[in-house]
Predict the 3D structure of the following.
Amino acid sequence: MAEMTIRKMAFEFTPEMQRVFIKNDPAMSYTFLGAWMMLPYLEPYLIRTMRQALPHVQDPQLRDDLRMFCAQEGEHYKQHARANDIIRSVNPGFAGLSALEEELDAEYKGFSKDKPLLFNLAYAEGFESMTSAASTVQLEMGMYDRVDSPLAHLGKWHVMEELEHRSVAFDVYHACGGTYLYRLKNQLWAQGHYFKWVKRFADLMREADPELFATYDKPEIARERKRWNRRYWRRAIPQILKTYRPRYTPRELPLTAEFTAAQQRYSGMAKGFGRIKGETV
Ligand SMILES: [Fe+2]
Ligand SMILES: [Fe+2]
């Protein structure tokens, strides 16, 4: 597995930053921004799940990996929360986001309290396997390299670290006795649940920003966007479908030169590096 590093980032988010950080694609950019609004609640849920699993994990290496996973996810949601605070403030129409955030937070806290650990681990793995599969294609195609925005850096740093820790949720799920069929069933449920929420957040944001969307409403922009999206989905969908196979392992995901370059770039931009306190690290 690629080495995991806890990078402390200092992205400079401002109210003026370019929110359409995926070139010419306000709809895709706002789908991501909607998903990112969820992360200060979703990633703490993943961390709670992993911490609940820790007493059931015996392998010292996996115990360390689990702690590194939690530390990386902890940095992710803090950076996204900083960006979200700025984004919420730029448009009065985004005021409704806070109510959605509260509802989502309560739902994930309810999962931690009421659902079996194995369900929560399958949810975590469903989220991690889907995002890792998409991340590798996003890095390879330079999705975050085409617009100058701190939001593009945020996305690129995040997906690179998702690839660094891509096998942890999978390994912890299996260390806790998870089976293939239970993973498949609950992973599909989790992904449906996640996208239902992404849509609620993204729809609210899109409806509040019609002027911004109108500036991209030109035939030549639409043609370029369609071409790029076709290429993206042609590569991402087969990669995501592979995660549903019985023999799937996150270790089979290709780690490309673009991934290694992103690791080096964000290690260079980090303002510091975290360490975990554990029995073997
Ligand atoms: Fe993350
Ligand atoms: Fe993750």
The pocket of fe (ii) ion (ligand 1) is lined by residues 43, 73, 76, 158, 162 (CB under 6 Å). The mean pLDDT is 96. Residues 17-269 form a domain with the Heme Oxygenase; Chain A fold (CATH 1.20.910).
